[in-house]
Design a protein that fits this description.
single chain; 228 residues; alpha/beta; Rossmann fold; 8 helices; 7 strands; binds S-adenosylmethionine
Length: 228
Amino acid sequence: MRDNRLLTCAKLVKGNKAVDVGTDHGYLAVYLVENGICSSVVACDINEKPLESARRTVSLAGLQDKIEVVQSDGLDNVNKDGVTDVIMAGMGGELIVKLIDKCGWLKDKERPVNLVLQAMTKSQTLRKWLYDNGFYITRELACRDKGYVYSVMQVEYTGVTPEYDDDGMYLYGGRIDIHDEIGYEYLKRQAQRLRKAGGGMMKSDDKKEYGEWLLHVADDLMRGDSDG
Ligand SMILES: C[S@@+](CC[C@H](N)C(=O)[O-])C[C@H]1O[C@@H](n2cnc3c(N)ncnc32)[C@H](O)[C@@H]1O
């Protein structure tokens, strides 16, 4: 597998039994087993076409006995027994929130599941929801793939919701390390986006205050004083 984004997801999987939600082609599922990171994987998807593709990938790898391909909306049809990791990658931040929120067993402190989350859009919405709902980002890595820079989060449920101090750096920068070359690139791109959006808002009286806040967040991101 040459996909840096999925390789970064794999790096944050603890093992031993993972569920790959929205598996599509099933490449990550096969990689996790072939590389001894997991002894088994449930590869699930809501749509039939990706499921067919995943079945083909699994069968070509000869891993039908280790990878179960399941049709499921999020984790609805997944048996939680023995699951150590749940990966949700390549989906929008709002969809990831929805899928985590409706799965009760992801909020069990006695039986913690390692969540590996990679949002294609709205990472700040995902981080805010996690923060507000007792999920803690333990690690976050930036990666570059085909010209894009992504963030991948490793998350655990603690049940604790710290007082929210509206810290924009956390929402937009997460726990990305500015001293890492790709981490720096991620934060730089986030800051550029915020400067563009904030600059536009400064021109409108009713959005000026929010625009100003976004510009401050952009400056803070580049100062590297986010402690997550
Ligand atoms: C862009 S692909 C990402 C594939 C792979 N996870 C990756 O990161 O490369 C998104 C996949 O999520 C699936 N999907 C969308 N909504 C879903 C849901 N509610 N439950 C499970 N899978 C879903 C889609 O069918 C699609 O195969």
